Amino acid sequence: MKYIFVTGGVVSSLGKGLTAAALGALLELRGLTVRIQKFDPYLNVDPGTMSPYQHGEVYVLEDGAETDLDLGHYERFTSGRLSRLNSLSSGQVYESVIQKERRGVYLGKTVQVIPHVTNEIKERIYAGGKDVDVLITEIGGTTGDIEGLPFLEAMRQFALEMKPKDVVFIHVTLVPFLAAAGELKTKPTQQSVAKLREIGIQPHVLVCRCDHPLDTDLRDKLSMFCNVPVKAVIECRDVDSSIYQLPLALQKEGMDQLVLDLLGFKIKAPRKNIWIEIVRRLLNPRHEVTIGVVGKYIELQDAYKSVYESITHAGIANTCKVNVRRIDAEDLEKKGGMALLRGLDGILVPGGFGDRGTEGKIAAARYARERGVPYFGLCLGLQIAVIEIARNVLKIPGANSTEFDPRCLDPVINMMEEQKAITDKGATMRLGSYDCALVPGTLAAKAYGAALIRERHRHRYEVNNAYLEALRKALVVSGINPKRNLVEIIELKGHPWFLAVQFHPEFQSKPNRAHPLFAAFIAAAIRRRGRGGPAKAGKGGRR
Which amino acids are annotated catalytic? Predict the structure, then answer.
């Protein structure tokens, strides 16, 4: 068992998660089994109650864990499925330590950061890496942050307990270019590494984020002052077109072979590299479509991160360039706002909470229905479609969700019964993977190519079955949870492609295996555009 720790320095948002994910992808190409996990220093137990403005999207795992969006990168770049053991925060650590103290586990000892907190962190490292060859752990935050010190101390202790070739430290750092001086500056990286060395950690590899090439002199300078070999100074510039070019960029720098050598692996380079084909399809599309994403947090790139990535994957599957037009749902509620939907080849309404912008989303669903534009609703996007169709097709004017209007006349969307007595917000929704039985011959069944699927959920509200008979006059319920008879997928009769789901398919899409519903949605958009004839959706499978 081998361990890699990825830390960051100088500033946040350098791309530690993407670096860890791309490295994991390269190690998998060598035939190794890899798992990646994230340790976050914040005191929240998990990101589930954090605002998208603070933290971006909440990424839901198979077992229902609400996690950082970086775990989405980990699952998209590698084949491993993650669990709640692979997401740790300071909040979880301190909660566990205090609970143990209350139970008397420490036998009356004074509970301290060292050893009790650091031991708790180390236990999670051991637990997170069972049954894999390599465990990669990303430490959130920036070296020098006070809340991150217990994690770094635990890493130092852990490395001391292991054999020399069992642990590698990778430090992702910034080498900024100063326009006034006309050169890259290495001092911030030197200071960041010095901070690590004060703690007792000597990085083996430097991943230098920069927007200009690192020449030989700069590599030599970083090598000398940071005490790493020159070959371990890795240049990492922004990729040209897509994050899926990153594995190839790091491979070109020799990072995968360097890490394998440091860990004592002797594995030949792979004959086939799937990332070459992925990038080729990305850069050489045969089709082009424009998809409108109508949301509430549209100005934030990370709020719908997995949705945007899944759209990209579907474009790869269809050899199609997908232009995404981000549309603020509230803008559709303004006079003349509906003009923002003109020229779209497809409309997608993602998940969300609260009533802000809901009427704009309902208007977008109506626009798609009436004009034959492919529509794809995710979680809240299904509920929006149901409300729109109930109001405007079935003529139920009071149709609404009790989330938006608790006293509405016709609650076609209602809070699930088991949710009504819950008062705590954190980790209390319907979370994780559940079965969905598909109706043969429907769009969903054709896309998946299966009769029973499993998808990940995160919601409190559901289609009210009291209105199901009426809704079936306009809708096809093409997916049902077999245990509880809950509506999971709906389709619109007589429409080219109108489909909405109560779950989050974006959490199971990969660049080399697009989610079947996203692939089918983009294929429908291509058909609407009418260029090159019908496109085949990406291969679906049992999920």
Answer: 379, 504, 506
